[in-house]
Amino acid sequence: MNRHRNEVRTPASVFVALFLTAAIASVGGVQHAIYKNQQVRLSREVDAIDRHIEQCRLDIRTTEMRMDQLLNRFAIRSQIEENGSTLRPIPAGIIEEIEATPAPRDSVASAAP
Q1: What predicted TM-score, i.e. pTM, was given to this entire model?
Q2: How does pLDDT run across 35-63, given as a tens digit for each residue?
Q3: Contact criterion met (CB below 8 Å) for 60 and 54
Q4: 75 in Cβ contact with 69 (< 8 Å)
């Protein structure tokens, strides 16, 4: 009969501590998974942005190349001839040089009547 009284009983604080430890470990595991998923998602976003930047750079180079082709004076001249335009080259003796600085004005504009 005295057998139950003499057995060592585990205090309730030990069970509470084990429960809190398990709760903290499970919350830590969930937080780790959340942070890892965010890291993977951000890494994918960064890779997608890098690919988009490279595509934009390629588009810029392609556009510059096409602009150079379109602004080529010989290509423009041949295009004008193909279109049957009446535009003709100007002889060098007819070209006039104009001063870059405008002449000073004596009058001043006024908004009052």
Answers
A1: 0.52
A2: 999 999 999 999 999 999 999 999 999 99
A3: no
A4: yes
